[in-house]
Amino acid sequence: MARLADYFVLVGFDHDKRGSGDGQGRIIQRFPEKEWEDNPFPEGIQLFCQPGGWQLVLERKSPNFLVAVLTDINSERHSCACFTFWEAVESLQPQQNHANVTEEEDSKFIQAPQLFAPKSLVLVSQLDHTEVFRNCLGLIYTIYIDCLDFPLETVIGNLLTCIVPITGGSQRTISLGAGDRQVIQTPINDALPVTGCSVALFLKQLGINNVLDLFCAALTEHKILFLSSSYQRLTEACRALLSLMFPLKYSFTYIPILPAQLIEVLCSPTPFIIGIHSSFRADMQDLLDVIVADLDGGTVVIPECIHISVLPEPYLYQTQTALCMVLDPELEYADYAFPPSSMSASSMKFQDKEIRAVFLHLFAQLFQGYRWSLQIIRVHPEPVIRFHKVAFLAQRILLDDDFLIKVLDGMAFAGFVSERGSPYRACDLFDELVANDIERIRSEEGNPQKVLKHIKEISEKLHRNENPYPAVAMHKIQKPTEGSHLRLQRSTFPQLDEGMVQWFIDQASAKLKNVPPAVKVEMKCIVPMGHPTALIDRNGIILANSARRLEVVRNCITYIFENKLLEAKKLLPAMLRALKGRAARQCLTQELNLHVLQNRAVLDHQQFDYVVRMMNCALQDCTPLDEHLVAATLLPLVTAFCRKLGSGVTQFAYSCVQEHLVWTNLQFWEAMFYNDVQNHIRALYLEMECDHLTETGSVNGEREQKSALGVAAEQLRLWPTYSKEKQQELIDKEESTVYSQAIHYGNRLTYLLLPLDTSKNRLLRSTAIGDMESVSNSFVTNSIAGSVAESYDTESGFEDAETSDVANSVVRFINRFVDKVCTESGVSSDHLKALHANLPDIVQMHIETLDAVHRESKRLPPIQKPKLLRPSLLIGEDLVMEGLRVFMEPDGREESMGGSVGGPSILPAEGAIFLTTYRIIFKGVPTETLAGEQTVIRSFPVASFTKDKKISPHLRAEQEPQDRLQLRSSTFQLMKIAFDEEVGSEMVELFRKHIHKLRYPQYVHSSFAFTVGQSVKQVMEPKQKEKNPSLRTMSKNIMKNAKKTIGRQYVTRKKFTPPTLDQRGIPAHGDNLDQISVSDEMEQSALTLSSTIRSSDKSTMSHMIERACCRDYQRLGLGTLSNSLTRSKNEPFRITTVNRMYGVCRSYPSLLIIPQTIQDSTMQRISRCYRQNRFPVVCWKNSRSKSVLLRSAGLHGKSVVGFFKSQNAPTAGPSQTDSTSLEQEKYLQAVINSMPHYADTGGRNTLSGFTSAHMHSSVLGNRARVITLANPRATLKGRESPQGKWGSIRGSGRLSAYSLNADVGIRLAGKETLSLQANGGPSDSHYFRQQRVGLYIIGDKSQLKGAKQDPLQQWEVVPIEIFDVRQVKNSFKKLMKACVPSSACTESNTSYYHSLEESDWLSQLHKLLQVSVLVVELLDNGSSVLISLEDGWDVTTQVVSLVQLLSDQHYRTLEGFRLLIEKEWLSFGHRFSHRGAQTMASQSSGFTPVFLQFLDCVHQIHLQFPMEFEFSQYYLKFLAYHYVSNRFRTFLLDSDHERIELGLMYEEKGEKKSQHIYKSVWDYIDRLSKKTPIFFNYLYAPEDGEVLRPYGNISNLKVWDYYTHETLSEGPPYDWELVYGRREQVDDGERMDTMAPQTHRKIVWPCYDNQNKTEPDAISKLLEEMQMLECELGQVPGKWKETWDKIKTTQRTESMQEGKHLSSSSLLISSSLSHHRRSQCVYLHEAAVGSTLNLSLDTDSSTTSTPSSGIMGRKSTSTLYSQFQTSESEHRSYEGILYKRGALLKAWKSRWFVLDKTKHQLRYYDSKSDVDMKGIVDLAEVESVTLGTVAMGAPKNIEEKAFFDLKTTKRVYNFCAQDCQSAQQWIDKIQSCLSDA
Question: pTM of this prediction?
Answer without folding.
Answer: 0.52
